[in-house]
Amino acid sequence: MRVWLRRRRRWVTFGVVIAVVAAAAGAWWWYTEPPPHTTEDLRIEVGTDEPAELDARLYVPDSVPAPAVLLAHGFGGTKESVTESAERLAGRGYVVLTWTARGFGASGGLIHLNAPAYEVADASELLDYLADRDEVERDGDGDPRVAAVGGSYGGALSLLLAGYDDRVDAIVPQITWHSLAESLFPNHADPAGTADDGRGEGVADTGTPPGHDGVFKRAWAGLFYATGLAGAGPPGVSAQGAPALPPACGRWAPDVCAVYQEIAASGRLTPQARELLDASSPASVLSHIEAPTLLIQGQADTLFDLGQAEANAEGIINAPVKVAWYAGGHDAAGTASDQERIDALTVRWLDFHLKGEGDDPGDDFTYSRIGGVTSSRSDLATVGLTRDSYPGLAGTESPLSVRVEQPVTATIASPPDGTPAALSSLPSLGQLATFAGAGFGGDIPGQFAAVETESFDDAVDIVGAPSVSLRAASPTGEAVLFVKLYDVDSSGRATLPNGLIAPVRLTGLPTDIADAEPVTVTLPGIVHRLEPGHHLRIVVATADQSYAGPVEPVEYTIAMPDRVTLPQTTSTPLPSQDGAWQVALVVLLIALPVGAAGAWLVARIRHRRRDRSVDPDTADVPLVVRGLRKVYADGFAAVNGVDYRVERGQVVGLLGPNGAGKTTSLRVLMGLLQPSDGEIRVFGHRVTPGAPVLSRLGALVEGPGLLPHLSGMDNLRLFWRATGRPESEARLDEVVRIADLGERIHRKVRTYSHGMKQRIAIAQAMLGMPELLVLDEPTDGLDPPQIAEMRRVLHDYASDGRAVLVSSHLLAEVEQTCSHVVVMSRGRVVGTGEVKDVIGSGGRLEDAFLELVE
Amino acid sequence: MSTVVAPDGAAPGYRAHATLTFGTEFRRQLTRRRTQVTLALLALLPVVLYLAFTIGGDQVGGDDDDSGNAFALADFGTFGAANFTLFALLVSSSFLLVVVVALFCGDTVAGEAGWGSLRYLLAVPVPRGRLLAVKFAVGVAFSALAMLLLTGMSLLVGFLAYGWEPLRAPLGGEMAADEAVWRVLGVAGYLGVTLLVVAGLALVLSVSTDAPLAAVGGAVLLHIVSNILNAVTALGDLRDVLPTRYAQAWLGLLSQPAQYDEMVRGIVVSLLYAALFTVLAFVRFQRKDVTS
What Pfam families does this protein map onto (chain A) (predicted)? Predict the structure, then answer.
């Protein structure tokens, strides 16, 4: 067994490595692959006054009964759009019900925009359905343990459902609205002097504040309208046998469609529109919500800004509320690390409030700031930040008030029908404006006024909603303005953080600016860092392509803000989510030096322990070769049981035809090859790779090995230096004399002839006058006088107790140079002894040789 | 004749750990024309870049034929010493530095084998582990020197040509010049760590072949293959095991504050690969039959 193991050590090692790698891969797979779950596609009948069949899918985890999650999709989506989230939640052990909302995809019915009697009632019926399923854990009869989760359209549904149906145990609404009327008709102007408490009272239970009027968010509204028309084209997914959809309204419910057409045509919020939008807004039901609520809002969202989440958070007074922001939203997907953070928050929220597992998620607040780009995903990178509670858009610290350099009063023109207009953002692409030079933000001359602050010496973080105060005069008494805050770098490049702007509709304005009262404009909340050297530019413009302005041309006089207030919030960076990698790095940084030191130590100990003992019988014999065998990896036995000796004072010739195994035996002698069997002893010491006794051997085997870029002299010097032995031992002068190169020894080896290289190589082998000199074809390339000289040198060399082994195929040469010969053929020694004995009676070495190698 | 020999049979004055010192090997390599030319080239590259920027000056940041590329560092190359250095590092990191490191480390053993001098060093005898360790150390030292020359000369040329200006990041962030220099040095350091993978790979190939060109070319080739696989997004998470996966994680140093997560991953992956290759090279060389 042991022999077998040793023979096949390579394969055994290889097998072990493969096994370890496979085991690691398996463990990794097992660790990362979510537990399996099954899915079931369903059609669920819902609704009474507009019955519809919902296209649904139930994800059932391995272990049941389990709490359930009602997972709603966004506007225009289907149950397929949330597959990834559903699978992740099912993997975490939740029964997940996804469905396509009424009016979309393969579900029946019309779009009622989350109306309480339709979409919200549908969701309640889905709760009934879940309560009937055995896989779902129940709190009571007909009351499943369930959470409602969803983004945007689905997020508002979860809020509304929790407001109307107290069976909901937790909700996680994401990037959704508080008041649709406020979101589609934003007005960021506060009545004078009330900027401090923001929305404050009046919001909680009544929906949109009374008298609210704003600027119609035309681009976004149009996009939604178009989505609802999707079914109006050729018959496709719409319910079978259904009458053709009206071209103007598609799958929109008639009342919603009528309201859209009305507000889109006029650009104003009518009472009917207001009533309908309020019914679809969580604002109306927040005080009834008793389910713990995790509100996740996007910072890159020109549709539902951070203020909407803040209003929701303030309105939910009967349940725990936690708020989180991330760098995505309706305009951007957010970064991978953000997504991981949001997913982790969601799962923790559900685990605690549905399963009772884990710590109370509490009400600490996390958000993120874009801080560069990641490489592996070629995407934006975010810095995660946290603080102990939600700070509000007004900030927690006293705000930073920054003066503008030169307050101005300017007259600006509102173009007829709002065209041409600046382009601050495009729906769903708002984040592009964050990049400098992305093509947005071109304010139209004559239509805007701007003031700038001085540049900042230190970086300033804005977390929340900046505000400015301005005065305006208009001949009509009304004005529609767009207030923007640009970050301008030292070279003048301006960026509009997340493309967010503040539309303002002012009424009751005087015609003379002198009579105008100050109006505070609170901009949408942002998370943005102003780098040192940057400054802020406040722009007030009259038109924007995403919004509907007044049709008639008009000129306003604006007293521009003389300062901008920047909300401040203290926070700490989130600990890296890459903890495992950091640990791995520390482990590596310790393990690698320790491993290297360990390997060095082991090598040293093994080096010391190696058998260096002297065989007393051959301690004074320069070379003993015993039973040497060398079988190459391909099975060829180059040397097959060779024995010979070289005694002191001898010049031994190693003879043999090509392929006899001469060179192989010399390579083993130099410690270059591991013998398969047998041994070589030099002065009684066994030769192994790197055996110290090799230092008493000088060799020239298979031609010179010189550094071509150095002179012959430098080659000799550097070679001796590489031995680490004292300079005095080298006998450099003697050796140089033997090489006999004259001045040419100082020229580069590259320029040498073959014979010159050969002589330097012989000199190199003789450096330090080793006791055993091994020369392979030493006369190769030498001319006759040099050969004669070499013969004398070798003879002298051996005369004082040293020994020389010369391998050659020049028989006459060997005959004249050597005292003894070893004749090899086909890996074996076929003759050995004194030259004259080997020659025998024939008189010529050649005859004897040919006879031997036959 | 009889001289006093050590019990292990060594010649007088021979000590295994005194053979082929770092200094000797460093001299052997430094005297090579190829080493000198490579180092000179890297030192001159910043000057060449400067000339290129000067001659083609009108185009810099002017025409936007590659607009939309947020990483268009070339547009910022002339903004100051830090930007210039960053640009020089960026353009050389993907190929030039790879070749240079592969050259210095892939030539270690294969180069000696090619000259035929390997067998004489081993018969000195220089212990095999020591030979490889010293040669690898010298190869890595020359690689580091190349990196240092490129970075240092870029800073110098950038400073003389464009001044000590703040670093302007591709996404619009700005960083004070003094801090920026540290960041740029960090980038150089990170690139150096990732290039250790190439160094290790070249070493393995170097002990596996007697042709220096095969070792150098093989290391560069495998590096490029890894880069190509990394570009195949369809491979998904499988790409995470590629040694070049985090090759551009140094971008994190251009953020404010710096983002280290990806760099930590990159360093871990690089060190693992480098260690693996190095161990492989040592194991292989210890057992190998030297036939060159």
Answer: ABC_tran (PF00005), Peptidase_S15 (PF02129), PepX_C (PF08530)
